[in-house]
Design a protein that fits this description.
The protein is an all-alpha fold and 170 residues long. 94% of the residues lie in helices and 0% in strands.
């Protein structure tokens, strides 16, 4: 029984680690794609302004505005990718914890000698699982809201300008 619990726990740890590696890989790829996309869009913006005959200061202003917008999008994408990575890690950690609790619960069920003990342990496990599920959902939702707020602040030009002015004043 102890070997079974140990191998199950080891399998859960390996699955969690594989999930973390996959999340990191996806987040890194998204960030790299955003940087490459930003450079490509700058070049396209310059060519479009040349093709439309926009020259001089107008061209610089259009290119600068497009670059600022794309920079904000890239920064927001980075915030969202990092947030997704954090939420995924948290979810994996919480899932691993839940799996360990369920394994402990199965051990408790296996120790039951009477029907009353079985019913009492099973109902306690169900109550704990519901409570745990609600807590996990709340934690993930709170972190998701924090990430969405951070992304909104990143992409909102007024907030960004106010932050820039605040930094200059400090």
């Amino acid at each position: 029984m102890a070997d079974s619990r140990k191998s199950t726990k080891q399998a859960a740890n390996e699955t969690t680690e594989a999930g973390r590696e996959a999340v990191n890989t996806v987040a890194d790829a998204a960030q790299e794609a955003a940087v490459i996309g930003l450079d490509g869009v700058r070049r396209v913006t310059e060519r479009v302004t040349q093709a439309l005959g926009v020259t001089g200061q107008e061209s610089e202003a259009v290119t600068r505005q497009a670059s600022e917008n794309l920079g904000a999008l890239t920064e927001t994408g980075t915030v969202l990718a990092r947030g997704l990575q954090e939420v995924s890690r948290e979810w994996l950690t919480l899932s691993q914890h839940g799996l360990q609790k369920n394994i402990e619960g199965l051990t408790q069920l296996a120790r039951c000698r009477t029907l009353q003990d079985l019913v009492a342990v099973q109902s306690e496990l169900m109550r704990n699982n519901w409570h745990y599920m609600i807590d996990v959902s709340r934690q993930i939702a709170e972190r998701s809201i924090e990430i969405a707020n951070e992304a909104a602040q990143t992409i909102n030009p007024e907030t960004k300008q106010a932050n820039g002015r605040g930094r200059k004043a400090a």
